[in-house]
Design a protein that fits this description.
Layout: E1 2-4, E2 7-9, H1 12-29, H2 34-43, H3 48-54, H4 60-72, E3 76-81, E4 87-92, H5 100-122
Antiparallel strand pairs: 1-2, 3-4
InterPro entries: HTH_HxlR (IPR002577), WH-like_DNA-bd_sf (IPR036388), WH_DNA-bd_sf (IPR036390)
Domain HTH hxlR-type: 15-118
GO molecular function, one term: DNA binding
Amino acid sequence: MKTIEDETLPTKEECAGSLKNILDALYVLNGKWKMALILSLVQSPKRFGEIQKEIKGISPKVLAKELKDLELNDFIKRNVFPTTPVSIIYEATDYSRTLKSVIRELSIWGEQHREKIKESMRK
């Protein structure tokens, strides 16, 4: 590894491995809504309508598709209760909780970015 001013730079092989890992993660978590949905359901299980009210701007069609994608990748669980009418509750899985540090870091970065944009607009 090379170093520049006490910062270790990854080798070409390490970069290629990291890039592959990042692309895999982005493939599964792509889109505008998936991380917001995971965060919402990590806070508490919810019905479809509750999710839609909490996440402003998502259409029912897109919400249904995103929930199916998240369920297929084991980030959420769909619980069907045989009531009349049928009740469906979505909840985060333990696997989705493995994203806790990623969500925290994205939140911190997003706040810093927002401040950077505000600052550049003041100039």
